[in-house]
Write a structure and sequence with these properties.
Blueprint lengths: L2 E6 L4 E6 L4 H10 L3 H15 L5 E5 L3 E6 L2 E6 L16 H4 L3 E5 H14 L1
Antiparallel strand pairs: 1-2, 3-4, 4-5, 5-6
Helix pairs in contact: 2-4
Length: about 120
């Protein structure tokens, strides 16, 4: 997973651009992960997963749900859990889905969070 961080020095808000297919992690980090303590707490959870003290972890955010296992990280927007019968052809929205859901290996996710923490 490739990423690039930027900071708006007027608002002190960090932003991230991620490789295609992982954009939802960027949106999620920008919305939820502006606090060092928040990121540090999540890194503790990942450590518990790696040590197999826990086998899974779920975190509900303001717009996204994060689901971690000992192998992977998944992020999905709350809107994916809402049923909309008017959307007959979901294939037309697959590009949009990349911005509201993503997954990667736990190690890649850990690398992203550690880099993000160092940046912010």
């Amino acid at each position: 997973m490739e990423f690039d961080f930027k900071k708006d020095y007027f608002s002190d808000k960090a932003t991230v651009k991620l490789s295609m297919g992982h954009e939802a992690f960027g949106t999620w980090l920008e919305q939820e992960g502006q606090s060092k303590k928040w990121v540090e707490d999540l890194l503790v959870v990942i450590g518990q997963l790696q040590q197999r003290k826990i086998t899974e972890y779920k975190l509900a955010g303001s717009e996204f749900n994060l689901y971690l296992t000992i192998e992977e990280a998944k992020i999905s927007n709350h809107s994916l859990h809402e049923s909309d019968d008017s959307l007959e052809d979901a294939n037309e929205l697959s590009f949009y889905d990349q911005e509201i859901q993503a997954e990667c290996g736990l190690e890649d996710f850990l690398n992203l969070l550690e880099s993000w923490l160092a940046f912010i």
